[in-house]
Design a protein that fits this description.
- This protein is an alpha/beta fold.
- It has ten helices and five strands.
- The protein has a domain of 195 residues: Uracil-DNA glycosylase-like domain (Uracil-DNA Glycosylase, subunit E, 3-Layer(aba) Sandwich), CATH 3.40.470.10.
- The longest helix is centred in the first third of the chain and has 28 residues.
- It is elongated and about 140 Å long.
- One of its GO terms (molecular function) is uracil DNA N-glycosylase activity.
- InterPro entries: MUG/TDG, Uracil-DNA_glycosylase-like, Uracil-DNA_glycosylase-like_sf.
- This is Pc22g01220 protein.
- One of its GO terms (biological process) is base-excision repair, AP site formation.
Amino acid sequence: MPASTEVQPKLEEDETALETVEDVPVNKMTSFNGRLQQFLHNGTATREALSTSRTTISQRRINTTNERQADPITPSPRRKRTVPPTAPITTATHQRTTRSKSTLMATSPSPSKRKRTATPQIPPTPPIAGPPATESLLRDTIPPNLILLLVGVNPGIMTGVTGYAYAHPSNLFWKLLYSSGITSVRHIPADTYKLPALYSVGNTNIVERPTRDASMLSRAEMDAGVPVLEAKVAAQRPEVVCLVGKSIWEAVWRVRHGRGIRKEEFRYGWQAETENMGRGDGWAGAPVFVATTTSGLAAGMKPAEKEAVWAELGSWVVKRRQERGLDSVVVKEEIMSLYHKLS
């Protein structure tokens, strides 16, 4: 039996080690005349109890090992799980008969029958009569010797249909004319053709084709309008030409210099004298003032910044009108009376 031969030497070693343990010596002076000796460790009794318990444990291990070798464990076969057959479920179907709402309404007479009255047909609103998309009713107002000629990009759709400059309600043109002092009252677009007689201020555009937005114009269209504008200025000779929008000055610069204007070369306000428009036949040309766009769609500048640029032009116009004698009290009264007559 191999298991007993392994355990027996180990027990002998434990007994030999226990025999070397000596009893603890007792000092009668410090142990109450030896009374505490009964609580001291007894090496012999402990050794015998330990030897007996270890022998018992070893014998149990040997017996368990012999039983396992004599009777090997065989796995029990798995049982198949049987599922009882399910009985077919039968549901009773109840036939439901309903009557449609229309049948009930037909069988039950209504207390009062209403007759339908025919809804009057509103005739469609006729379209607003106006020019084709490529034409505009707006006309130039450029009499000779104007103090100021305002040059826009092109007419908007509403301007092209009505024939009044800057007619869209979101446009700031008429507001800026008044806040800058160019006009004495805040005019409406219908006063477009009164400005030359009232303030010696005219209006034209670099492109005549109306569009919803100036960005819909091609660069070729803008450049083609530059020589036409130069000819108008040379023929009527206004004192100052104001370009209403940066894109107009960019087109003029491209045609004159053969390239686009650089960022550091552009500035709002008065331009160099060498850039005067319409020069020729002994005339030095009209100085150019570049103003901000007045379109409500352009959000590149704040309203205060636009007003500051236009105020610079307005101060010059007011001064020039005074020099011409067009800004006295008598002249103002005549202007207002003329305004009411034209209205």
